[in-house]
């Protein structure tokens, strides 16, 4: 006799990936429930990509005003009001969260507000609600959370990116610890809003894992925006004083700021989730172990998104959700292809990247690697006398002549990289890029007019 369950599918976590999987499955006629312990929308909508982008756009206005003055505009008494921005941001986030919840309802998904914990492979408990639910299949999509070094003396005085979205007032001074994209983005945000900003990172340069030319170029450009960058150094302690927080650094420096923000990485959100009781294994970093089809070590449990720590991007989680649905409920086994996924860093200036870095290409391509690189002042800034420069770099497999990497630092880089990603994913060659007629005058035309290969040892082509 077959087992009867309350639901065909129970999803834990109503972020972008969980919501997509729940909706698709419910629209296919299955009984589906989804549990969310905080707010529908997950990291991206509530405390990540979306509110961060709003903050980036708000902070870019100060730079736009500087450029505009070079074009003859004048602004008297221009000022930024933090409480006004926060209120508008929160209203929009609430609207988006509401849309996510409404779409779940329209699809026939039962939305449960509460923390779901696994009791066994087919049973979840909603904590604090005296409710236990059974499901034939379970999907875990609980995402990740910021990490802080809990053993650092005074760490209780520091915030993470999650608290940065709700600061009661804009600080006059901030120190951000970290060198990844979150740290770099928030440094640009606060500096753009007029906050005296220091970025400290223990490594030799920011954005570990990105192309070395991109890292060096961006480090120089953000300093032009007034951000103080301290590399090869980290905290020894934090000390709360009557006038702020003193950052004691291992190089002997002591800096007092009003706020200290740690952006030193994120970890899978699996604490007290009951994984062991359900037979779900995790790796040494706390990520849920899955196969290519997102199946865990428990036959009826799957996991997608940041909780698996594969490629922690919102669009990837959504594609993993679609692949899960196709595999499990449409008898069409699919897995997401993680090759040549474009990404953007909304730093100031922003970064757009797709494919291999130069170093990665030299390790993976069978023969020579051709590099085309340019640095130039864009037309918009040249007119005003600004020294800001754009970097564009193409990495080409010398044997096949396929463009295997595109790297851009400069205005609108995220918009450009989305279209460049199509060409890289399609495996187009450098000759095909060259055969594409330029759009003039634009920055993007440089991508199809780069003709001179960078010579070994030549660090700049512009």
Verbal overview:
The longest helix has 26 residues, at 82-107. The strands form 5 sheets. Strands 1, 2, 3, 4, 5, 6 and 16 form a 7-stranded mixed beta sheet that branches. With 462 residues, this protein is an alpha/beta fold. The chain contains 13 helices and 21 strands.
Keywords:
alpha/beta; 13 helices; 462 residues; single chain; seven-stranded mixed β-sheet; 21 strands; five-stranded antiparallel β-sheet; globular
Global morphology: globular
What proportion of the residues form beta strands (DSSP E)? Answer: 15-25%
Kindly state the percentage of residues in helix.
25-40%
Taking pLDDT < 50 over at least 5 consecutive residues as the criterion, the unreliable ranges are none
Largest sheet: 7 strands, mixed
Could you give the count of β-strands? 21
Gap from first CA to last CA: 73 Å
Structural class estimated from helices and strands: alpha/beta
**DSSP helix count?**
13
The average pLDDT is 94
> What does the radius of gyration come to?
24 Å
Quick description:
The chain has 462 residues and is of the alpha/beta class.
List the helices and strands and how they pair.
Layout: E1 7-12, H1 16-27, E2 32-36, H2 42-47, H3 49-70, H4 82-107, E3 110-113, E4 116-120, E5 123-126, E6 131-140, E7 144-146, H5 161-164, E8 173-177, H6 181-192, E9 196-201, H7 212-224, E10 228-231, E11 235-240, E12 245-249, E13 254-257, E14 259-262, E15 266-268, H8 275-278, E16 301-303, H9 314-329, E17 343-345, E18 351-355, H10 358-364, E19 369-376, H11 379-382, E20 390-397, E21 403-409, H12 413-426, H13 430-434
Parallel strand pairs: 1-2, 1-6, 2-3, 6-16, 8-9, 8-14, 9-10
Antiparallel strand pairs: 4-5, 5-6, 7-15, 11-12, 12-13, 17-18, 18-21, 19-20, 20-21
Helix pairs in contact: 1-4, 1-9, 3-4, 3-6
């Amino acid at each position: 006799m077959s087992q009867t369950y309350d639901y065909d599918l129970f999803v834990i976590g109503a972020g972008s990936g969980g919501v997509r999987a729940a909706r698709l499955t419910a629209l296919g006629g299955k009984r589906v429930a989804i549990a969310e312990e905080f707010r529908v929308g997950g990291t991206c909508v509530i405390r990540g990509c979306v509110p961060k982008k709003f903050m980036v756009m708000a902070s870019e206005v100060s730079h736009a005003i500087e450029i505009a003055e070079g074009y003859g505009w004048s602004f008297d008494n221009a000022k930024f009001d933090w409480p006004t921005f926060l209120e508008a941001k929160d209203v929009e986030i609430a609207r988006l969260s509401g849309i996510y919840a409404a779409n779940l309802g329209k699809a026939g998904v039962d939305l449960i507000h509460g923390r779901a914990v696994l009791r066994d492979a087919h049973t979840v408990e909603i904590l604090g609600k005296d409710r236990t639910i059974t499901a034939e299949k379970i999907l875990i999509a609980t995402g990740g959370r910021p990490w802080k070094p809990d053993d650092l003396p005074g760490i209780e005085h520091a915030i993470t990116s999650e608290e940065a979205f709700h600061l009661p007032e804009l600080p006059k001074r901030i120190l951000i610890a970290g060198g990844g994209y979150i740290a770099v983005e928030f440094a640009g945000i606060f500096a753009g809003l007029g906050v005296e900003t220091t970025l400290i990172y223990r490594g030799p340069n920011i954005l570990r894992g990105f192309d070395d030319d991109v890292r060096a170029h961006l480090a120089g450009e953000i300093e032009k925006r007034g951000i103080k960058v301290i590399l090869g150094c980290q905290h020894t302690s934090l000390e709360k004083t009557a006038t702020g927080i003193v950052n004691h650094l291992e190089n002997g420096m002591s800096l007092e700021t009003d706020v200290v923000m740690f952006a030193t990485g994120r970890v899978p959100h699996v604490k007290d989730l009951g994984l062991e009781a359900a037979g779900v294994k995790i790796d040494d970093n706390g990520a849920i172990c899955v196969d290519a089809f997102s199946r865990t070590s428990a036959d009826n449990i799957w996991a997608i998104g940041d909780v698996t720590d594969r490629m922690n991007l919102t669009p990837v989680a959504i594609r993993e959700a679609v692949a899960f649905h196709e595999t499990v409920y449409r008898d069409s086994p699919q897995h997401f292809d993680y090759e040549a996924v474009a990404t953007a860093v909304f730093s100031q200036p922003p970064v757009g990247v797709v494919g291999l870095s130069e170093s990665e290409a030299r390790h993976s391509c069978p023969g020579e690697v051709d590099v085309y690189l340019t640095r130039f002042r864009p037309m918009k800034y040249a007119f005003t006398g600004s020294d800001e420069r754009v970097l564009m770099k193409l990495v080409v497999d010398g044997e096949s002549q396929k463009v295997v990497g595109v790297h851009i630092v400069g205005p609108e880089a995220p918009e450009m990289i989305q279209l460049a990603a199509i060409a890289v994913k399609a495996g187009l060659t450098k000759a095909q890029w060259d055969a594409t007629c330029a759009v003039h005058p634009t920055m993007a035309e440089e991508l199809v007019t780069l003709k001179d290969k960078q010579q070994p040892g030549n660090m700049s082509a512009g």
